[in-house]
Amino acid sequence: MKEIICVVCPKGCHILVDDSGKMSGYTCLRGKKYAEDELVCPKRTLTSTVKIVSSEMVRLPVATNGDIPKALLFEVMQDLAKVEVKAPIHLHDVIIKDVRGTGVDIIATRSILK
Ligand code: SF4
Description:
By secondary structure, the chain is α+β, with helices and mostly antiparallel strands. The protein has 2 domains: 39 residues, no CATH class; 62 residues, CPE0013-like fold (Roll). Helix content is 18%, strand content 32%. The chain has 2 helices and 10 strands, in the order βββαββββαβββ. The protein has a 5-stranded mixed sheet. A 3-stranded antiparallel sheet has the order 1-2-3, covered by helices on one side. β5 and β6 form a beta hairpin. The N and C termini lie far apart (53 Å). The chain binds iron/sulfur cluster. Iron/sulfur cluster binds next to α1.
């Protein structure tokens, strides 16, 4: 028996999956889909920062604009450690396009104009 806590909404349903794959405990189909994805390929949104030069700030906050496979989080963090951007940067500017071939971009989560 495996337990998955659904994080799709604040209710946080505890979804149980038995050895045959039968699920119980979800309240809606979004939760069932979340649990199915968690079993096959868990995904997460990543938030972090990258180095910014020519600015009063030293780090630019960034995030994925979608979920990426949890298994790639470490590699993506390594990619971000190598990134240097220059101001000005605008909210939602793409910092890394299609990171690790996921189809998801790393984007700026704030503007830094100088
Ligand atoms: S199963 Fe549905 S109601 Fe329960 S936490 Fe997930 S999304 Fe929310």
